[in-house]
Amino acid sequence: SHVNELACVGYEYENDKWLRDNRYGVCTRCKYTLWVITGREKIKWEKLDDFWKDKIHYHEMIDFSTEYAKEYLKEQKITDSVIVAKILKAAKGVPFHLYLSTEYFFQQIEAGINIYDIDFGQDYEDIFMRYIQYMNDDEKAIVYMMSCMGRWRKEMFYASNLFTSAGIRLTLERVHGLSFVKSTGNGEYYLHAEAEEILKKRCPTEIKQ
């Protein structure tokens, strides 16, 4: 069976309860069984139920080919060997990190930074926060809001008095096109798990409220 805890049917995170419930779930009742669950995002069972703490082990399959990464960068018109090497090092074999590093590269160019002076940071969180730092105030406010929303529809923003001007709506559309903003394909959106975690722990109190 296919399990999607973010599926747009029923209540959020209820779709996999038949599998993870600590009393009646299939995983719990089938003792002495090793369960292998694959997906693009880390499952959130440990956050939903303390029962799963120390029982789940993650193994990331991160080694996409260098050829794929170089081809992707070529499609983005990034061919300078020095820059390509820097981006590949920052991506560390993770597709999502590759896409963010590419967005960060173009963001830095727009900010007037010499391409050879661009610092891609030490790890994903480092480069992600550098990317957020160069956003304008409206963009920052929007991504921090998103980190607190779980899932949302664009209409939820449009209903707010803060999103009535044409300019802020254009900004909202632009943010929805970023690599770490994901679509369910059914009109709903959510943040990539790593991005959500980083933003949520840094979210200003006034936005959380």
What does this molecule look like?
This protein is mostly helical and 209 residues long. It is built from twelve helices and two strands. A hairpin with a 5-residue loop joins β1 and β2 (189-191). The longest helix has 16 residues, at 95-110. The two termini are 39 Å apart.
Set out the fold topology.
Blueprint: H1 17-20, H2 26-29, H3 45-48, H4 66-75, H5 81-91, H6 95-110, H7 124-133, H8 137-149, H9 154-158, H10 166-176, E1 181-183, E2 189-191, H11 193-202, H12 205-208
Antiparallel strand pairs: 1-2
Helix pairs in contact: 5-6, 6-7, 8-10, 8-11
Determine the fraction of residues in helical runs and give it as a percent range. Answer: 40-55%
Order of helices and strands: HHHHHHHHHHEEHH
List how many beta strands DSSP finds.
2
Mean pLDDT: 84
Overall form: globular
How much of the sequence lies in strands comes to: under 5%
Rg, rounded, reads: 19 Å
Q: What is the count of DSSP helices, taking H or I runs of 4+ residues?
A: 12
Low-pLDDT windows of residues: 5-10
